[in-house]
Amino acid sequence: MKIAPIDIAHKTFGRRLGGLDAEEVASFLKEVASEMEGVIRERNQLKEMLRERELQVLEFKEKDKALKETLMTAHKMTENLRKDAEREAALVLNDAQQKADAIIRDSRDSLKKTYQEITELKRQKTQFEVALKNLLTAHLELIERNNGYLPHIATPTEAVQGGSTPNLRQGKPVLET
């Protein structure tokens, strides 16, 4: 059976011979009722505080859960970004390596072509030198055969003056032997 403070305050007792002092009992019951009201008020306040704390705990748990989820999402995103960056770096390095290989290959081909051109130029130079030596030798032999004789050729001035020299015919130089 529940007893409320008002029940205590209005409680009456039967009388017996040589019983208790009614005023003292009534005063004590009022004190107990007042004390019980304070205890109930305190209990209700504590219950309210407990309910508020439980709500706060629930809020904190929700926030904690959201934080954990956010951290997990951030971790996953970071991991994905790292993997993507590694993949991208590998692609860039691979592309750079291919370009470097192509540049090296082109440089080698160009160097090879340059060496071939140099070799061809050396061969042409040698052929030219041989042909020039042969031409000079042939001219020297021709000069020696003619005993150093060189024909007189009229200059353009002599040709314009009208052929007063014996080696001009009709204004054109003529070789005399």
Write up what this structure looks like:
Strands 1-2 form a two-stranded antiparallel sheet. Helix content is 76%, strand content 2%. The protein has 3 helices and 2 strands, in the order H-H-H-E-E. The protein has one domain. The model has no long low-confidence stretch (mean pLDDT 85).
What would you call the shape?
Answer: rod-shaped
Average pLDDT score:
85
Side-by-side strand order of the widest sheet: 1-2
Largest sheet descriptor: 2 strands, antiparallel
Percentage beta strand: under 5%
Detail the poorly predicted runs: none
Number of strands: 2
Quaternary status = single chain
| Rg on CA atoms, Å | 65 Å
- Share of helical residues: over 70%
The tally of domains stands at 1
Distance N to C terminus:
166 Å
Give the H and E element order. HHHEE
Structural class: mainly alpha
Number of helices: 3
Which properties best describe this structure?
2% strand; mainly alpha; rod-shaped; 2 strands; 177 residues; two-stranded antiparallel ribbon; 76% helix
Short overview:
This protein is mainly alpha-helical and 177 residues long. The chain has three helices and two strands; from the N terminus they run αααββ. The termini are far apart.
How are the secondary structure elements laid out?
Elements (H helix, E strand, L loop, with lengths): L4 H5 L12 H124 L10 H5 L7 E2 L2 E2 L4
Antiparallel strand pairs: 1-2
